Amino acid sequence: MAQTAGSVQLENEKVDSLFYYFNNGADKKAYQASHHILRHIKSNKAIANANLLLAHYHNKYAAIDSSIYYTNQALKHKSVVNDSLGARLTILAYQLLAINNKDKGLFHESKKWHLKGIELSEKHHETNLYYSHLHGLASTYIALNKTTEALGIFKDCIKNSKDPEIILGSYINLGSIYSSLYQYKLSNTYLQKAKTICERNTHDKQALISILINIGDNYLNNGDINKALYTYEDAKTESRKNKLVNLELILDDKIGTVLYNENRNEEALLIYASALTKAMGLGVLNIQMHSYMMLEKISARRNDYKNAYIYGERYNEIKDSIDNLQKEKEINQLEMKFETLQKEKTIKLLKIENLNKSLNIKNKDADIEKYKLQEAIIAKQNENRVLQLQNGVEKRKNEIALLKEKEQLKALELDREKTIKYIVLVAFFILLVPTVGLLIIYYQKLQAQGLLNLKEKEINAQRVSSLKKDQEIKLIKASIRGQDHERKKIAQEMHDSIGGNLAAIKLQFSQLANHPDKVNLIYSQLDDTYEQVRNLSHNLLPKKIRENDFVSLINEYINTVQEASNIAIQVSFYDEDKINELDKILQNELFSIFQELTTNTLKYANATAIDIQLDLLNACLFFVYEDNGDGFDVSQTTLGIGLTNIKSRVENYKGIIHIDASPNRGTNINIEIPIENHTNEA
Predict the structure, then answer these.
(1) What pLDDT, in 10s, does the model give residues 166-220?
(2) Per-residue pLDDT tens digits for 127-162
(3) Greatest CA separation for the chain
(4) 644-to-176, 340, 466, 659 alpha-carbon distances in Å
(5) Domain Histidine kinase, which positions (predicted)?
């Protein structure tokens, strides 16, 4: 059935919302929702965009083949979308294919997709995407040892691109190129510029790791092997921490090469074996090829010629595979087309410059003629000014005579006005004195009335405070009475029912030797006692937990906190129905954690915003709590009673808690609790 315009728009808006989640830290949520939504949407544009999101997700986590598959799916469904958004989607897909092929080690294939992206970006005036592809092409040129071509492109990107990420990447790559040209001082200058940008923008971990790699290369090229290895290991730790597997593979390769050159064969062997396993899992062909080559060399050095032969065979297989996967003819044609376009641009610029020079010469001749005319005009103007001055002298003489007559008349008028003003001033003072007296009396009355009102307000405030205290005392007394009543009720229940059952079970056990047939009766009495204990524990839960939905209870609590403070609190739940079905005891523990964390923020953090997320996915409860307050140093701070209690509650449910905090950067707390049978029972 044909779709309506409204349903198509709704599908596109759903996919757009998933991109928002992906770009704001909830990439796993966006990934799961994309798989779900693909089963229901029918619009080609929405399907293409959903596949493109999945391609970006797999690219982020170095699942290269999966990323290429979903990119091709996006292009397949985009083929019927011919508007400007469809062209933009195609350019983005070409960029993903180029990046994935480069990560895979197919540099010529990567170059082909970047050249196609550049051509399409120019055609549709997509300036930002043009420079993204141009920057990627230069990076591919580095991998192909075309440093001269790459150098010019990166400088062009810095000069003309407005994208901060492209400028940052260009600085890093220029540092790498100048390092390869043995110009280490210039290399470190560009790397320092890039590092300054990363320090202002701390979330760009991939760029920071790339900078560390290049700094390590400079140490290595200057002969400082220990510093190089230390820097590589530091970068590798950051890569593993941020799940940047492609960078981790590059660092394994660099560390392995250093160890091999230092004759540390056993360590190098372990590094390359590990790198080979990771590269095979991710389909990164160039790392596989280089790992096999180095394993062949290491085995030969260790006189293990059998394994050296096997590794050599594998090396040649991978090399042949890379050559077969790349179509040189089509790529060279695209590259020639790109270079021709670049030359045409340069020729056009030169023509414009020559035209401007010829126009400047003509303009100079015209300026000389204008100058001569201006001199003639100035001479005529001077003659006219002399005549005007002569006429002006005669006019001024006449004006002076008239002014003298006017001054005499004005003097007479001023005398008359002074007399009138004097009379008016005297009359004004006569009226002013009684008016001022009345105003003073009125002001004194207002002051007295104000003091009286202030006293009344203080008395009323004291009365209200007294009433509140009386009410609080009554509530506390009522609460104590209620607690005493509950304790008596629980004690009576335990004594009469549970105690009686236990006494009966004890008696049955004492007679078990003479009456072995009473075992089933004992089991029955134990089940009955267990059920009574379970009912009693459920009755101990707070009334608000037992009688309300958990999500509504949390929202009510958050609203209360917001009304009493200036903190903006954002709460989100995923699958509210399943969260409301959790076991009430677990809900009570979660509510206590909510209260403890919020209280800590209000007391100590000086925060202005709190972001809370509670998701139930794949039989696991994810609780994320984040504020923008003062934070603290986790490594130098002992957990207080509140956080210790939270940790104990989480561990009781076999969960894990991770606290990420640092001074002046807020606090982030992540809790994961496995959900097995923690749902409400009938």
Answers:
(1) 888 888 888 888 888 888 888 888 888 888 888 777 667 777 788 888 888 888 8
(2) 878 888 888 888 888 888 888 888 888 888 888 888
(3) 151
(4) 48, 68, 38, 12
(5) 489-677
